[in-house]
Amino acid sequence: MFTGIVEELGEVVAVERSSGGARFSLGASVVTGDASHGDSIAVNGVCLTVVEVTENGFDVDVVDETLRRSTLADLAVGDRVNLERAMALGDRLGGHIVQGHVDATATVLGVDSDGLTEFSLPPHLSHYLVEKGSVTVDGVSLTVVAPAEDRFSVALIPTTRELTTLGLRAPGDRVNIEVDALAKHVERLMAPQLDRLARTGTRRAVDNGESREQAR
Fold first, then answer.
1. Which residue of 11, 63, 150, 212 pairs with 27 in a disulfide if CB–CB is 3.0 to 4.6 A?
2. Domain ranges in the chain?
3. pLDDT over 80 at 123, yes or no
4. How many CB atoms lie within 10 A of CB 36?
């Protein structure tokens, strides 16, 4: 689990493609301070497992499924990436609960000089975004400014633009999106109850209609 607070901007040092995915060698110094084989590190919002800690960074393996569902397939040597270690018990939750499981990719639609940035949004995710709610973009915890059916916008402060890859993004670039996990859990828990209420309400409406007809 992560918080969406980027600890370090890493760099793609090498990419080794294979039939089942790819191995990425990433340059980093902060997140590797206490890292070891098997640890989880979020790379642009994707939870990955460290397979080797190197002198100047670490290596991760990425399977084809993850490459297809995220923007990691777009990475090339020299690209910068957002890095965050998995949170430890007792850490401050500076952002919000982030799982590192990408829900979809989106496209940057526009960026203005004040940092207001607009992204596309798959319609099936729109109901998870609310004004002043949380969303994760490339591993960065952000506050939703204006949600819509097929897009949303966030306001990037100068610090966020400087310390994350979001300051490098331009219209047309793809990003990883993860909606608030709590919203998904609430929906899953409430769905059976809401469905039951809907069915009960329909039956009651029919019963009431029949009663009125009989009363006539």
1. 11
2. 8-85, 104-183
3. yes
4. 10
User: What are 209's two structure tokens?
Assistant: 């209609």
The candidate with the shortest Cα–Cα distance to 74, out of 178, 179, 176, is: 176
3-state secondary structure the chain: CECCCCCEEEEEEEEEEECCEEEEEEECCCCCCCCCCCCEEEECCEEEEEEEEECCEEEEEEEHHHHHHCCHHHCCCCCEEEEEECCCCCCCCCCCCECCCCCEEEEEEEECCCCEEEEECCHHHHHHCCCCCEEEECCEEEEEEEECCCEEEEECCHHHHHHCHHHHCCCCCEEEEEECHHHHHHHHHHHHHHHHHHHHHHHHHHHHHHHHHHHC
Which residue has tokens 């100068």?
Answer: 158
Sign of CA dihedral 5, 30, 23, 39: negative
- Distance linking the first and last C-alpha atoms of the chain: 62
Q: What's the CATH code, domain 8-85?
A: 2.40.30.20
Are 93 and 181 within 8 A, CB to CB? no
Fold category of 104-183 in CATH:
Elongation Factor Tu (Ef-tu); domain 3 (2.40.30)
The reply to whether 8-85 and 104-183 are identical in fold is: yes
Q: Which of 2-6, 115-119, 187-191 is predicted with the least confidence, judged by mean pLDDT?
A: 187-191
Q: The whole model's pTM is what?
A: 0.85
pLDDT of 207 over the 60 cut: no
